[in-house]
Amino acid sequence: MPELKRCFEAAGFSDVKTILSSGNVAFSAEPDIVTKLESTAEAAMKDHLGRVFLTIVRPSAFLQSLIEPNPFSVYGLPASAKAVITFLRRPFEARIGLPIEQEQASILRLDGTEVFSAYVPNEKGPVFMALLERTFGKEITTRTLDTVRKCARA
After folding, report:
1. Which of 4, 31, 79, 80 has the most CB atoms around it within 10 Å of its CB?
2. What's the predicted TM-score (pTM) here?
């Protein structure tokens, strides 16, 4: 994470903070289109780290709007369920019938470039990730609701 922070600083981003240890980076930047910020971040990673990680940028105010009020409250999830938000790089154009469910994992809602899902952890591992990738492809990143809250406050 310290290398990732230095990489973003070298690319001209300011107020860079890494959040947790899962590749979340908060930064200040001149207002710009998201795709340009994504490509700038990916180019910086290639130059400074020697590898590129899929970069999906969302402004903190946007993240805040996703989680206020709790978008999962209407679904009556079991107490053991983990709420997750998946971020798509581009809007998903295909029509799909929701919810999609498999082994205690559910894709509940698609809203633009965000997917709201939940799963109950079990011994089979992250079934929900396979379900998300099969439905939306691999250019996605998924974070728990708690992590999205931390990123929105960063």
Report:
1. 4
2. 0.89
